[in-house]
Specification:
Blueprint lengths: L7 H10 L5 E2 L6 E2 L15 E2 L10 E8 L4 E7 L11 E7 L2 E2 L3 E2 L9 E5 L5 E6 L13 E8 L2 E2 L3 E2 L10 E6 L5 E5 L9 E5 L1 E2 L2 E2 L3 E2 L10 E6 L5 E6 L9 E6 L10 E2 L10 E6 L5 E6 L6 E6 L1 H18 L1
Antiparallel strand pairs: 1-2, 3-26, 4-5, 5-6, 6-7, 6-8, 9-10, 10-11, 11-12, 11-13, 14-15, 15-16, 16-19, 17-18, 20-21, 21-22, 22-23, 24-25, 25-26
């Protein structure tokens, strides 16, 4: 795996402006990046490509997340146009001695399509989907849910999430709350469509039977890539239901005072495009909203101030109050 070179023009500008984060140690090396969020200037309420030319490159990038109080960053990358989907590498870069290190493949990953991950609120645990074998078997499983923890010494051994009435079929893009509830997409249970969003909780050391989130969230269309807020106050997911801006759009639903979910709200034309927006997540510190988009003919990682969710919520409830008068 090689990493894209930054144009000489950027090198000249970096020296002239004395911005260390844009310098190169040597031609072909990973650039010297320092500071929070890989030294990137934080975005406002309009999405921007995250670390262009460094993390978001001419290849295709997907899931992403910060670990260990923002001291580590994980992300997917595959060659642009690769449609084999047999191995989707997860890379890790860490802040060491004041600089972000050259990304390397994570040590826990196997070839059985370890993918579609999110970072837990503790900032240490990675939840992901995988077809890796379990219980000493050498045969690949159906896609199921796993977790692994980043420690000071490396990664723990991945552990599968065994819930009641588990069925050997697709379970994807797990996301967890601060209280330990796990949200994920599945098509194995009898739901509203081919893929629905489900939730199970931990009770007395065991996970409960998954429950469908209901008609406010799910439809006869595809609902997937659901990210749940730490306090379960909102959920963001992508769906191909009609009425959106593109192929897959990101929607948000808010938890009502009665414990029910609001109807899904399209996140609007600034977040969504005529193409697909997928893999939403909020950084563990709650400051930024990350997602993936192929709006520029390749998959890049985008980020935006997480305040955009509050803006959408305010507009949604203001509009509903007015319409009910």
């Amino acid at each position: 795996m090689t990493y894209p070179k930054i144009l000489n023009l950027i090198l000249v500008l970096s020296f002239s402006s004395l911005l260390v984060s844009c310098q190169k140690k040597n031609e072909g090396d990973f650039p010297q990046l320092t500071g929070p969020y890989l030294g990137q200037d934080p975005p406002g309420l309009k999405p921007e490509v995250f670390a262009p030319g460094v993390i978001s490159t001419d290849d295709d990038e997907g899931c992403s997340g910060f670990l260990n109080n923002g001291q580590a960053f994980v992300f997917n990358r595959v060659p642009h146009g690769d449609t084999t989907w047999t191995y989707i590498p997860i890379y890790l870069t860490e802040l060491k001695d004041g600089y972000w290190a050259d990304p390397v493949p994570v040590s826990f990953q196997q070839g059985q399509n370890d993918d579609n991950f999110t970072v837990a609120p503790d900032g240490k645990t990675l939840y992901f989907q995988s077809m890796r074998p379990k219980d000493g078997s050498t045969e690949p499983e159906y896609t199921s849910l796993w977790k692994v923890i980043k420690t000071t010494d490396g990664w723990t051994t991945p552990a599968s999430l065994e819930y009641e009435n588990r069925q050997d079929e697709y379970g994807g893009y797990p996301s967890v709350t601060k209280g330990g509830a796990v949200y994920f997409a599945s098509g194995v249970f009898q739901g509203f469509g081919q893929l629905d969003i489900y939730r199970f909780r931990e009770e007395n050391g065991k996970f409960t039977t998954p429950e469908n989130l209901g008609a406010a969230i799910n439809s006869e269309h595809l609902e997937l890539d659901a990210f749940i807020a730490q306090d379960e106050s909102f959920i963001i997911l992508c769906t191909d239901r009609p009425g959106g801006h593109g192929e897959y759009d990101l929607y948000v639903s808010f938890m009502e005072p009665d414990g029910n979910w609001s109807q899904l709200v399209n996140m609007g034309p600034d977040i969504n495009s005529v193409m697909s927006e997928t893999r939403p997540s909020i950084t563990p510190d709650g400051k930024f909203f990350f997602f993936c988009s192929d709006r520029n003919d390749k998959d890049d990682i985008y980020w935006v101030d997480a305040g955009v969710v509050r803006e959408i919520k305010s507009t949604y409830y203001s509009s509903n109050d007015q319409s009910s008068e």
